[in-house]
Design brief:
314 residues, Thrombin, subunit H, seven-stranded antiparallel β-sheet, six-stranded antiparallel barrel, 23 strands, globular
Amino acid sequence: MGISKFWLLAAGGTAALTGMVTVAAGDDADPRLGHAMAPQAIYDTDDRTLIGEAPAEAQELARSVVALVPTTDLQRVGDNYKVWGLTHGEDLGLCTGVAFSDIQSAADCSGVLIGPDLMLTAGHCVPDMVQCQAYNYVLGFEVTDRNPENVVSADQVYSCAGIAHAGGDVLDFTVVRLDRPVTDRPPIALETGPLNGGAPITMIGHPSGLPQVLTDNAQVLAVRPDAYLTNLDAFGGNSGSPVFSAAGRVAGILVSGQSDFEEIQAAGRRCTKPVYYRCDGPRCEGGGEVVVRSDRIGQVSGLLPPNQPVAERP
């Protein structure tokens, strides 16, 4: 299923950096794509939208996006789980008027379903089995008119059965094997080759631990052997977020970027606000946000042998 051009053209805990980062200067993205754990930021304008307000094509893709939520932040209530957490504003001491301040944040990282029981995320989010088992893997962590209180059905909550593949020191990714197959929504195919510079991209994930957010109006700024540099608006919690090509396939996952919040004095108090970086054509202050290429993930993991055809998303 393709994604409509009108919304594509121009993206916590210890692992996801959900806490405040005081900015003095941007952290350079690691072009080698090791386990760089830099936070992320906004480029030019804030192009984030809660998934419940996003186009239908984005909402369909979001069904296969996963929130990595600490097991301690979920409470079983009958056939559902209640997701606990501070609001975004409370968590980071945000200044008045910052977007999404009144919305609860709970996710440490993001991921995407790439097989019936396989979930792809950033390697620094799930570096080992201890961390893998410290998370629940939650589908449908979103704020919509149907779900204003962040309650998720128990059948949308999964646990870690093991680590199927890991990038090690080569690439910053982990493929988690879930405790059971997902049967009510499809996995999303990986792109088998690189995107071109300037290609339009979008991202769905959990910036600063928020419920699902769409980031659009972004593009590939530069193509590296293992990664893309992009101008996606991204934050801690977006680590592992799937980045989609115009064809609706996973082009890669976000792993690092620039410092995302700065502390200022406003209205007689110290508070934090997002950092904005300027872009001039294909160049952005600080270099941009780093996305590990899915074709390289597929090759390193063996999930995607060279020249394997990509199945169309239903």
